[in-house]
């Protein structure tokens, strides 16, 4: 609500252009009507931003890329992938013997892109949910035996999925398990689940501030993506292309 008020305040003060930088887009998971009478909240947020007066949106790793189509104004959906690749190469000594794993079928495109750029293999886990935030059954597709498994997803909320996935990978023979996430929401029992899980590290970007969470969980590490957003703002302001940021980390 504060963002909408600030956008409107800028607009009625005769700003020529208003760009909203939203690192973690709200209600991004409610992007379709998956059951009767369910709201499409992401579309509602898009409408409110447009009506408030936003001319341009900059965000990162949308849960579903089709959310860009909810807007009639330009949307730059930046990717954390270049920063994730850099972190893997610099912090995981055995990264050449790793396997990139998606905790659900929907993230297959994301993990194949990372696996291709690292020149390693990938696997995925098929999960069945009985209700929201509760996973009923998991099936691993791929061979993780004697490898370092790196779980990659766009967000984690209560962390039930990634913690179940970590157990599944270790039981399948993985030597170590890392989790790399763009948006670490970490609500409810998430922190206690991470502390009790067998992760070497749970790595998140700072699209959501993590200082308080890190005090209660030593496994959480943060990738700073402020330079990516700063460069996107600079390029947008100067009328330059932001495509470079889709595959490179600005210096």
UniProtKB/TrEMBL annotation:
It is an enzyme of class 2 (transferase). It catalyses: D-ribose 5-phosphate + ATP = 5-phospho-alpha-D-ribose 1-diphosphate + AMP + H(+). Belongs to the ribose-phosphate pyrophosphokinase family. Its EC number is 2.7.6.1. GO terms for molecular function: ATP binding; kinase activity; magnesium ion binding; ribose phosphate diphosphokinase activity. Catalyzes the synthesis of phosphoribosylpyrophosphate (PRPP) that is essential for nucleotide synthesis. This is ribose-phosphate diphosphokinase. The keyword DNA-binding does not apply. The gene is PRPS2. Homodimer. The active form is probably a hexamer composed of 3 homodimers.
């Amino acid at each position: 609500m504060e963002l909408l008020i600030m956008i409107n305040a800028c607009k009625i003060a005769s700003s020529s252009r208003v760009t909203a930088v939203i690192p973690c887009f709200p209600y991004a998971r409610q992007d379709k009507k998956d059951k009767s009478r369910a709201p499409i909240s992401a579309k509602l947020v898009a409408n409110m931003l447009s009506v408030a007066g936003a001319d341009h949106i900059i965000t990162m790793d949308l849960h579903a890329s089709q959310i860009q189509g909810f807007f009639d104004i330009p949307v730059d959906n930046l990717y954390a992938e270049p920063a994730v690749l850099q972190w893997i190469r610099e912090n995981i000594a055995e990264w050449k013997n790793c396997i990139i794993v998606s905790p659900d079928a929907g993230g297959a495109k994301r993990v194949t892109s990372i696996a291709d750029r690292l020149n390693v293999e990938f696997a995925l886990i098929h999960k069945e949910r009985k209700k929201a935030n509760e996973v009923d059954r998991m099936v691993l597709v791929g061979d993780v035996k004697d490898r370092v498994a790196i779980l990659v997803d766009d967000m984690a909320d209560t962390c039930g999925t990634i913690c179940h996935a970590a157990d599944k990978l270790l039981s399948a023979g993985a030597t170590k398990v890392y989790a790399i996430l763009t948006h670490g929401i970490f609500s409810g029992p998430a922190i206690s689940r991470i502390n009790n899980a067998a992760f070497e590290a749970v790595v998140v970007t700072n699209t959501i501030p993590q200082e308080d969470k890190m005090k209660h969980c030593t496994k959480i590490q943060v990738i700073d993506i402020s330079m990516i957003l700063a460069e996107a703002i600079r390029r947008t302001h100067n009328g330059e292309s932001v495509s470079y940021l889709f595959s490179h980390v600005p210096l």
